[in-house]
Structures are given as C-alpha cells and as structure tokens.
Amino acid sequence: MAQTQAESALGTLRGKLLAKLAKAKERTKLAAAGCAQGQTRKPSSRLKQVRRRLIGYAHRLRTLSARQAVPAAFREPLAHSAAAIYTDAETLRKTLRCPDDASRP
Fold first, then answer.
1. Would you call 19 exposed, middle or buried from its count of C-beta atoms within 10 A (0-12, 13-18, 19+)?
2. 102 pLDDT band (50/70/90 cuts)?
3. What is the model's pLDDT at position 98?
4. pLDDT tens digits, residue range 92-101?
5. CA 27/CA 49 separation, integer angstroms
6. pLDDT of 103 higher than 70
7. pTM of the entire structure?
8. How big is the CA angle at 15 (ends 81 and 78), to the nearest 5 degrees?
9. 3-state secondary structure of 62
C-alpha cells in the first residue's frame, strides 16, 4: 500500500488501486481473527478473497487505460509485487492450520 500511495505517476488510478489493497488488507485481518477463534473454513475463504483482490489489482495496472497513462517502469514493479504477495497468500491458504497459525506473524 505504501508503494502505491507514494507513486505519484499513477494519477487517478491510484485511488482505485488503494481501494483494492484496502479490501485485501481487511480480508487478511478477518482471516487472522477467524483463525485465532479456531475456525478453518472462514479464514481459508478470506485468504481466497485476498488473492482475488490482488489479481484485480494487477489487472487494473495492466488495463489499456493504465498502459496509456502510466509508464511501464512504474506499473510493472507494482504488478510483480502483487503477484508475489498472491503466491504467498495461496501458499498460506493451502497450509493453513488454525488456531496454531493464528499466532504466527
């Protein structure tokens, strides 16, 4: 979120991207809270929602209007970061064991 917030070259696209990231962050917190309560299904579902938000973030960076308005030097590093976080979220979702994983950072 900090990288997206700091990037002035994104212009009006920045608000939409930050909204997607804010929703992903909220879903991550909900997953952690559910896991702390011993739930498994809801946290897994929340992590799946995080993945979907990150996919949407990367897609928005690669739309035609984004490609025309923002140079690739600014867009692609953000999209690659989202892809890396997506992979981490997927790995976490597949190996999730609650409530043991709730205390991990």
1. middle
2. low
3. 82
4. 899 888 876 6
5. 7
6. no
7. 0.84
8. 15
9. coil
Structure tokens at 70: 């923002």
Residue 59 tokens read as 């897609």
Cα–Cα distance measured from residue 104 to residue 55, given in angstroms and rounded to the nearest whole number: 25
The residues, any chain, with a CB within 8 Å of residue 69's CB and separated by 6 or more, are 11, 13
Q: Peptide bond before 99: cis, by omega within 30 degrees of 0? A: yes
Q: Are 25 and 33 in contact (CB under 8 A)?
A: no
What's the CA gap between 63 and 76, in Å, rounded? Answer: 12
d(CA 94, CA 29): 17
List Cα–Cα distances, 10 to 15, 19, 54, 61, 83, in angstroms: 9, 14, 17, 9, 18
pLDDT tens digits along 9-58: 998 899 999 999 999 999 999 998 988 888 888 999 999 999 999 999 99
Q: How many residues are recorded in the chain?
A: 105
Chain mean position to CA 86? 7
